Structures are given as structure tokens and as C-alpha cells.
């Protein structure tokens, strides 16, 4: 923001009033969030590895995996926020990009099993089971970590580009766009359920043994994956923050508020929407690739329509068009989910439904919006006292 | 396939057929001795900056524009009046590329065919449009609204790495002063009054530095004082810019036609074509116009 505001020395003709548009939670909130993320990335591994298992401060492995998983979800929510909160395009198909990234990583992990599978074959178990004699063509690069990681980015990116190009060029908007993204992920799910597609059918991939030759189920590997996920989340947050604070980000918000005005100002919304759509899809894919080795399984249920809708719920609960919101939302909803499904397993779905209704009715700006409301009330109160 | 898409497809096809059927040039658009055609540059050597010929637009059989022909000279301020449904807004839609006509021609200067360009391209070559309902970016500040409208490279990469220079800040400051929003620069545009939003949108047009301004009911919802100031602003633009003002407010039309240059023309639209054209007094005395406005 500060980049666009004139400094008094450079613009003698233009004196700007001091009051700036209040940003969500202000600079303190942003720094607080960043500090919290860095703290989690550092403290969780220390509590897990350095503190003796008997100690009260020791963090069981279950929580390392859980928090790592939620950080992957937070990246998805952040990606959803860029396209939905800032650009006003609701995608109900982001689960597909997440799953594609996950499958990309999963293919590599399947090949890393080597001959340690049940059938002691070079081929992944499910292929032996289907009586296949050699790898299908799309597994050609699955031996190489680097190539497979490139595919994690390129395949979802390319799919998003082609899909987005035609959708945005045809000016498909609003609920129509949401519905076709939903249909897209549903169609992909049906495709991946088939054994002939070569992705393990409805079982997907599991039983991973190694990553880069290192055993995957050891505490050290787990913590390493956790730290990488934490750093990726911080990186994605900083990237998103840079994007929305440039003129590019303001054009995105302008498209959300008045797309026709943007067009008649000479911008072609197609390329703006398409670029943020692809960036968002790739972020989701990276989250998926980090998710799979931590959770140890990927199957087509990640492409189910409900999975994509959940991403939108995290974003809405946390607060759209704020960058803190989606991260808070992902932690809040998934934290609640893991507690509820243990404490009251049969009531989780009711709670999720109630939460969504409550947010829609009472918190249109999400949790972060609620804090902002309180702060504003406080300020108003303080103002009153000052005057009195 | 949304219904709009199918409708749009059908319209495109009708237009294509009509264009193929009536493919014949009119007027002098090519390069000739001593005259070079520069692509993307408006050529007003023949006097006209906007030239519409036999434009027809129909929606579901209803003819919103019916063989409308109109020409605007460079530097002219033209007022267009007409009862509701006369096709004023549709005409602006055609000029700015929002609606493609079934038939007819639309030229910007004598070399640029508007019917071949997209909305954003038309805006870039210098046609600015103000909507009937003030359309600003509600969540952004007044300053940011103007910044986005500022004439600059409109491509994605340029926007990612753009920074405002001193000259551009001066320009924004100038327009802020012109539209009387200098003290509101950091306010969110959504919090402005209706009249201020109208002005902000006019300011955004000025930032684009267009050659032709299309203004759809620019003073709707303004106070008398604001209306007067708007008339002054438009009159100050006359000559250096061409303006097309669509308005219902006859007092405002009166102010516009009396000030500035003499002999200003007013066009009356009715049922999608030009009913009368002339000075305000002529038009008001015209029997057909009286009939249309008062009913039989």
C-alpha cells in the first residue's frame, strides 16, 4: 500500500489526508500471524523431537501430522481466497487441483516402494493385481523426483489454463462458473475411480515406504515434511500478500466489484482472471503434493464435490478478501473437526452445517471480520471518551 | 451453455450473414497520396470522430436500434435526448463494443472499425464511457480508483510491477481537484454520496484521457449545484475532447447548449432511430418531437 501513496517530498501538489483505509486487523495482525506461523514451524518440531516422550511438554506424532495436514489445507484456503475473496470467482473445483498435485507426488512415492510391496514386483501392487506387464505411458517420469515435482505444478497449471481460458473467454460467471468447476472435479473423480485410468482405482495410492530413498514413517522425516509445509505456507502467504498489494491485485478487486468498468477502462479481464486462476490452482496442487507423504494416502475421494466445497467453507469462516482469514479459518474448522470427530463423532456434520449457517447469517466477513468489528467498536468507544 | 451464450451465438451469426450480404465499402478509409493510415490512431481529417451508419440491433425481435445513423464531429459536444426505450443506452453499448449490432457500420475517426474491436481495445484507443448507474470500485479508495483508470500499460505483467511516478501522481492530484474529491482521496469509494460517485466515475474517464467521452445520464442524482459544476466541467472539455451526453434533465441540456461554443446540436432519438436533429430551440419546436414526448 505504501508504494502507491505519495510521499510529501515527491508530490508538492498533492497532500494526502493521514487517514488510510483500515486494513483487516492492521499491521499488528499481519505481523502477529507471520510470527505465529514461524513459531508453529519451529516449536512443533522441537516439542516433538527434542522433548523426551515422557515429559508433559512432549507433542505426540499424531499432532505433528495433524498440524501439518491443516497447514496444507490452509494453503488451499489461501489459494481459494485469491480467486474467490479477491477476484470474486467462486470455484467449487479446487479439490481437483489439490488431488492432482497429490497424485503427482503419490506416483513418485509408489515407485519408491520398489520391490518391498506385497507382490515383490517392480510395478506398483495395484498394477500387478490388474495383471499389467509394464508401466502405462503416463508413469514414464515417475522414477524421477524432479520430473514428477515438475508435473505436480505443470499438469494442474495446464488444466487450469485450458479450462479457465475457455470459461473466461466465454464470459461464464457467477453460479454458472461454480457449477462447471464442480462438474469438472466430479468428472475427474469418476475417471480416477476406474482401474483402467492407471491411478489405483478407488483405493488410490497408499503404503508408501520411502521418499528420496529415506524411510517415510520415521519421526525425523515427518518433522522435515512438517517444516517444509510450514515454510511453503509462509511463502504462499507472502506471495499472496505481494500480489494483492500490487496494482495487479487492485485490478483483481476491481474485477470483483465492477467488471464492466474494468473492461471499459481498457483492461482485458480475461488475462487477469486467467493468471490468478492458474496461480491459485498451482498453489492448491503444491499443497496436495505436501499432503500426501504426511497423511500417507491419496484416493479419488479428494476430488469429491464435498471436498472442494469444504475449502470454500474454510475461507468463508475465516474471512474472505483478507489473507489472514483463510489461514485462521482452515485451522479453526479443521481443529474443531478433529476434536469433534473424537469427542462427538456423530455430531460433526451437524456442527459443520450449523457453523456455516451461523457464519452466513452473523459473520458475513468471517472470524477476522468479527475481530475487526470489535476493534472498530473499541475505537468508536475511545473516540467518544476522548470527546467527553 | 447459458441462454445468453446461445443468444449471443445466434446474434453473431445473423450479423455475420448480414455483413457478408452487404459487403461494400463506403467513404474513404484507405491510405492515399499524402495521407498515411496509422493503425490504432484516430484519423479525424474528415471532421468526424464517430460515425454510425444504419445500425440495427434487435433483442428477441424487438428492434432496440433501427437503422440508426449519427455522426459526431471532432471536438463537438452533442446532447442526445429521447424518451425511455429510445435506444440511447443500446447505442452506447454498440459504440463501446458491449453489444454487437446485427447490421450497420461504426467507425471511430475514418480508419478504425469499432465493430472489429473488443471492449477493452475500444477503451484503449480512446473512447471512455460513463454508465447510467455510477460504477466505481466500491471497496477501493478514491485514489486507487483513479490510479486504476490512469492511462498506462494494461497488461498483467505491467500491472504487477507498476509504480506511480511523480508525473502520474500530479495527474491524479489534478483530477482529484477537478472533481472536488481532493479531501476524500483515501476514503473508500463505496462510502461516497451518489453525486460524488458520479464525479468519481467522470474523474476516472478523465484519467483515461479519451478522445471521445460517452456520458450516460451523468447528472442523475446530483444536487442543483453539483449539476451546474458538472456542466461547467463538460464545457471546459469541449473542443479538446468530443463528448456525447445522454440526459433527461432538460435544464442541464439547456446549460450545456447555451454555454461554450455556439450552434450546438441536439439529437432526439425515438424507437431506435433519429427523430430530429438541430439546435435545442429547433428541436423543441419540432412537432414530431412534441408529439413523442407528450403523447397523442
TrEMBL record, chain A:
Pfam families, per database record: BPD_transp_2
Compartments, record wording: Cell membrane
Domain of life: Bacteria
Protein name: Amino acid/amide ABC transporter membrane protein 2 (HAAT family)
GO molecular function, one term: branched-chain amino acid transmembrane transporter activity
Signal peptide span: none
Topology term for the membrane: Multi-pass membrane protein
Membrane spanning stretches: 31-50, 62-84, 91-110, 145-168, 175-193, 223-244, 270-291, 311-335, 347-367
InterPro entries found in the cross-reference section: ABC_transp_permease, ABC_transptr_urea_perm_UrtC, LivM-like
Keyword RNA-binding: no
Keywords on record: Cell membrane, Membrane, Transmembrane, Transmembrane helix
Organism of this sequence: Caldimonas thermodepolymerans
GO CC list: plasma membrane
TrEMBL record, chain B:
Domain of life, per lineage: Bacteria
Source organism phylogeny: Bacteria, Pseudomonadati, Pseudomonadota, Betaproteobacteria, Burkholderiales
Record key words, sorted: ATP-binding, Nucleotide-binding, Transport
CDD domains noted in UniProt: ABC_Mj1267_LivG_branched
Protein name: Urea transport system ATP-binding protein
Ranges where the record places region Disordered: 1-35
GO cellular component, as recorded: plasma membrane
Organism of origin: Caldimonas thermodepolymerans
Molecular function via GO: ATP binding; ATP hydrolysis activity
A matching Pfam family: ABC_tran
Record NCBIfam families: urea_trans_UrtD
Record domain ABC transporter: where: 50-296
Regions that span the bilayer: none
